[in-house]
Hints:
Elements: H1 3-7, E1 18-21, H2 23-28, E2 40-43, H3 45-53, H4 60-77, E3 86-87, E4 99-102, H5 120-134, E5 140-143, H6 147-155, E6 159-161, E7 179-181, H7 186-190, E8 195-199, E9 202-208, E10 220-224, E11 231-241, E12 244-249, H8 268-277, E13 284-289, H9 295-309, E14 315-320, H10 336-340, H11 345-355, H12 368-371, H13 373-386, E15 388-390, E16 404-409, H14 416-423, E17 431-436, H15 452-460, E18 466-471, H16 478-486
Parallel strand pairs: 1-2, 1-5, 2-4, 5-6, 7-10, 13-17, 13-18, 14-15, 14-16, 16-17
Antiparallel strand pairs: 3-4, 8-9, 9-12, 10-11, 11-12
Amino acid sequence: MPAADKNFKPSKAAHSKIFVLDTNVLMHDPSSLFRFEEHDVFLPIMTLEELDNHKKGMSEIARNARQVSRALDEMLAVSEEIDAGIPLREFSHALASGRLFLQTEAIHADLPPALPTAKYDNQILAVVIHLQRRHARRQVILVSKDINMRIKARALGLAAEDYFNDQVLEDSDLLYSGCRALSADFWERHGQGMESWNAEGKTFYRIAGPLCPEFLLNEFVYLARGTGEDTEFSARVKETAGGKATLETLTDYTHMKHAVWGIHARNREQNFALNLLMNPEIDFVTLLGQAGTGKTLLTLAAGLTQVHEMRRYAEIIVTRVTVPVGEDIGFLPGSEEEKMTPWMGALEDNLEVLCSSEEGGSEASGSAGHYGGEWSKAATQDLLRSRIKIKSLNFMRGRTFLKKFLIIDEAQNLTPKQIKTLITRAGPGTKVVCLGNIAQIDTPYLTEGSSGLTYVVDRFKGWPHSGHITLQRGERSRLADHAAEVL
C-alpha cells in the first residue's frame, strides 16, 4: 500500500473532506488549523518551510508564524504516530473533530512544464494533485488567501477556496448601520399604552409593539418627513426589556445653538454621530463612511470641546495604521510624533477648519475671528496641538490610557487582533472612537468582511456603553460628492 494511503485512516465517514492549507492562511489566522470541524487538514512540507522563512521579525505576520509553529510543536510532542494523523479535538477544545496530517514523504506529481517546480506554490499544487489521485473518494480542497494560487489550482482542475472563517459578515451590506427608519404607521402600532416623561432636558417614551424586540441598545430610530432629509421624530433606544423599549429624544446638533466647537451637524447621520460623541455614558464609538462624510471633523470637534471646555478628558490621542497608498517613502526622521506627522494630514486639515475664523473658535481657547489675523490662528493651533498627542500603533502594547479621548483613524486597515490590542488600552474615564471606510482597505489579505473595524461594529452592537453610526452623505464639496458617485 502506498505511504499516502497508509496516512489516511479516518475513523469517521468517508465523505469528510481534506483541506490542504496554504501558508498565507496560517499566517493570516493562526487558529485556522482548528476551523474545519469534522474535516481533515493537510500541511505540505513547503508550508512549514515558508512558515520558517517568515518567523523572524516583529510584524503581525511573523508573530502569527511563530504562534502556528508553537501550536504544531505542542501537538507533535504528545502525538505518537504522525502518519496516522493528529486528532484535533483535544487541542481545539472540541471545535474540530478531524485530524491534522503532515507531509511525511516525497511527492512527485506531473505539473505542466510551464510551472517551475522550484517555486513553493507549485510544489503545494503538486501535493494537492497527489492527494486527489490517492483519495479519489474524498474531496481534496486547497485553501489559500492568494487569488493567483486559486486561479492556477482551478486551471489545473483542482478545487480551491478562499479562507472565510475570519469573515464577520459574508456581505458588508448586512453590516449594522446604527440607525433604523420607522414606518409611517409606527405610532399607530406602538403608541397604545405609551408612557412618557421628561428628565434632564430630554423626553422619554416607553412603548410596546412588534418592533421593540428587534431594537438594539443605542440604536437610533427616526421617522422621516416625506422623502427628504427632514426628520419628524428621532430618538435613541435607551432600554429594551420584556417586549418594551424606552426611547430618548436627541440633542439637536443641527441647530447652531448646540454647535460643537463651532461645528453643527449638516444631516441626520451627523446629528446621530454627535449625540454619541458627546454622550459621557458612551465609552466606545465607531463611525463608518466614505471620504468627506465628516468622520474626523465631528470627532475632533467633540474631542476638543470635551477636553478644553468641559474638562471631561485630559487630552486627545490620535493614532492610525501607517499603510501607504503608493510607494513607501522610506524612513522618516525625528521623534515618534514627528515620524507620525506625515500620516496625519487629515488631522491637520480638520484643525485648520476648526481654527478658521468662519467656523472655529471657542470660549475656552479664544476665537480666531475675534482676534483676527494669522497670529491668532497660529496661536489657536498651537494651543490645540498641546492637547492633541499623536502616537504610533507600534508602542501601544502594555499602555493604559486614563481619562483620554482616543481616536483610531483608518481603523479599517486593522486586523481584529490589532484592534483588540488598542481598545483594551482604555483605562477608567477613557473614550475610544474608531473611524474608517471599509471600502478603502490597504492591508494585504484583509477584506471588508474580515476587517477589524467590521469585527468591532458587529461584536459591540447592543452593548449599553457603545454606539455606531454609518455616515451616508458626503459634505466635503460638490466635486467630491460627484467623484464618489461616478468614479
